Structures are given as structure tokens and as C-alpha cells.
Amino acid sequence: MTINAPRGTNDILPPDSFKWQYLEEKAKEICRKYNYKEIRTPIFESTDLFIRGIGESTDIVEKEMYTFKDKGGRSITLRPEGTAPVVRSFIENKLYGKALPFKFFYSGPMFRYERPQAGRYRQFHQFGVEVLGSDNPLVDVEIIKLGIDFLKEVGLSDFFVEINSVGCKECRPPYLEKLKNYFSEVNQELCGDCKRRIETNPLRVLDCKVESCQEIIKDAPKITDNLCDKCKDDFEKVKNGLNTLKIEYREVPTLVRGLDYYTNTAFEIKSDELGSQDAIFAGGRYNGLIEEIGDRDIPGVGFALGLERLEILLEGKELDIESGIDIYIVTIGESAEREGFKYLNQLRESGISADKDYFGRSVKSQMKDADRKNSNYTIILGNEELESGQATLRNMKSGEEFSVVLSELSEKVSDLLDN
């Protein structure tokens, strides 16, 4: 019986893996410019972390988490998102005692039990950033700009920004009461999930994608009409910051995101090319999360970007990806194969990417293999070349040829590559 990859997962094979490396390196470059440092957290965490952090009534916790008991009887969950683990690490390692804010970025696999579809898998990959320790609304603008810079750096331009404020622990409770009263009056017209959410978390109703619910949501009380003075002021500062950087945006009063920990700014950067799952990256402020997980009232803000969705948008686009090798050594006969193997390793030790044939194939077949491996140069070694100590180096792109002394092969290839 054939064993296949689990449903909702996939293998990333060459040449696609080159594209992933390209995206990850571009993300790191952008984060270096913005002074964000990498953090790596475990792939699995205590289940309580996500129940307390994400929210017990969210779809993620209720329906989508991969949760199991380990051999010690502890409840463990494969991480469904990256923010709660970063906050847990921040608290556990007492980073709050150092100079704030802390600026982190991460990249890695996440896990959610969902119906697999384009851009949404059960194992998926996220690039995200988190800033812990600053309540300044300009930080919200900074991370939006960081994400936009990343999208532009990899060649995207067809996207748009949506923003909202979801209030704070002072102004949200009375707003939730208004929402609850409004939805209770139209209870019979809502879907089953929304009927339940009226009691558990009415804000989640605004996030419903069912068409009949969407019609009702349009006339629901707007949170931006119910913000406290500080939340109003912070939201204006976010909009002013976006205007200063000439970032166009749309205000969407029903944008609440799918996680309970969000406060104040919420945002999504979307593309019409992605269909119903149209968010490329999204996030917002979560000023109460650190206090919920730990015991300190420290503000935070961040976003997460789905790399699979980004891959969909990049299909057919020309990317500056190096997927070949510098030189391929073609050998004729046993002596040449032995000597060629020696030169191969000398080249690699000099920092040059190199390969050769290991099947004893004909020269023609080896040249075809060099083509498949997208080699910049080839060199043919036979008895004649070994006796003379010289060989011909061929540029596979231009056809130009160079005579090279074998003892100086690494230096010659390095010079050609530099030029």
C-alpha cells in the first residue's frame, strides 16, 4: 500500500523550493532594514496557551486545532498561529525587563484542521512580525509599511489596505452589548454559528462570511461610532501615519479579524486575485494579550503573512531566483573521473557551486545534464587535458570559451563569476 502525504499537506520540491528560499531571504532583508530580529518558537505548545491567547470561542480553538495528549498526559497543540508563542517566549524569558520595544520576526509552519483549498492548507507557512512594548500608533503604521515593502520587493503591486479599530477593554463592552441587542432581534435570520456567537462573542458575528448574515451585518452598529476618546485618537494617528507615507487605505467598520486578542487597530492587505480567501497578510494590535497569558500589561502589535497565498499571486511572474550551479565538470574515463572529483571539491571549498556526473554517461549526456542543472560553465576533462594540465572552460549561456590551467581552475572560475 502506497503511503501519501496527509490531506492538506504537500511536499515542496525543486524548483519550487528555490522560490521559497527567495521569499524567505527577501523577508529577512526587509526585517534587517527595519531592525526586526528573528525568533524561533517550538512547533507545539501547551494547549492552554492558545485557549487563553486566541480565545475559547474562536473557530481556531473550537474547530481547527491539532490537539493531542503526550505520553505524560499533557494537552499539546501544534501551533495554529505565531503570535501567542512569541508572547509566551517574551514572558518566559523575562524580556520585559530589558529595553523595549522588542521587534521580532518569524517564519515557519502552522497547523489548522480546515477544508483544504487553494491558498489554505492544514500545514501552511507564515512569515510574521511582532512588536512588544510600545503603544505608539506609528508602530502600527510601521508594520503595515514593512509588509507592503516586502510585497513590492517580490514584485507585487495589485493589492489594497483595509483598516478598522476594534476598540479597547473600556469601550468595547458597551459596544458588544449594543451588538448583542441588535443581533438578538434578528436571531432567526442568522446562521447557526452566529446564533451561538451572540451569547459567546457577538463581535465574531461581524466576521461571518455567510451571505444571508452579511446582509444583516451591514446595518449593525459600527464600532467606530462607539470608540472611547483614546481609541478615536489612536485610530486618527494611524490614519494620519498612513497618509504621511502615502499609503492608500479603506476604512471597513466590520473588519474584526478572527482572533479574540485584537484591540484597537485591525488591518488586512488583500488582493482580488485570491478569490474568497483574499487576505495576503493581516494583523493588528493586541494590548491585552500579554496580560492574558502572563501577568504584565504590556502592549503589542503584529501581522502574519501566508506564504502559500503569496505563491499563488507570484505564479507566472519572473523572479530573480538563482537556481543553477556555477560549473559542471564533464569527465571521460576513470582517471578523469578521479581527478575531476578532486577538482570538484577544490571548487566547492573555494565557495563555487559545482557538480558532476556519477553514472559514467557519454559526453553528450553529461552536457545535457549540465543544461538541466542550469550550469553557468562546463569543463571537459579527459586524458589529453590531464596530461597537458589545461582544459577549455565554456560559458553555457554565451558559448564563449576560455583556456584554463587546471591548477588555477578555482581562481579562473571565481574571476569569471565576479565579472
TrEMBL record:
**PROSITE patterns, per the entry:** AA_TRNA_LIGASE_II
Q: Name one Pfam family in it.
A: tRNA-synt_His
- Report the superkingdom from the record: Bacteria
Coiled coil ranges (UniProt) are: none
Q: Which GO terms describe its molecular function?
A: ATP binding; catalytic activity, acting on a protein; histidine-tRNA ligase activity; transferase activity
Q: Which residues form the Aminoacyl-transfer RNA synthetases class-II family profile domain?
A: 23-314
What keywords were assigned to this record?
Aminoacyl-tRNA synthetase, ATP-binding, Cytoplasm, Ligase, Nucleotide-binding, Protein biosynthesis
What cellular component GO annotations does this protein have? cytoplasm
Please list the reactions this protein catalyses. tRNA(His) + L-histidine + ATP = L-histidyl-tRNA(His) + AMP + diphosphate + H(+)
Q: Which residues form the signal peptide?
A: none
Positions annotated to bind L-histidine: 81-83, 112, 126, 130, 257, 261-262
GO BP, one example? histidyl-tRNA aminoacylation
Q: Where does the UniProt annotation locate this protein?
A: Cytoplasm
Q: What is its EC number?
A: 6.1.1.21
Query: Which family does this protein fall into?
Result: Belongs to the class-II aminoacyl-tRNA synthetase family.
Q: Which PANTHER family match?
A: HISTIDINE--TRNA LIGASE, MITOCHONDRIAL-RELATED (PTHR43707:SF1), HISTIDYL-TRNA SYNTHETASE (PTHR43707)
The record's listing under NCBIfam families reads: hisS
Kindly state the subunit structure of this protein: Homodimer.
What's the protein called, per UniProt?
Histidine--tRNA ligase
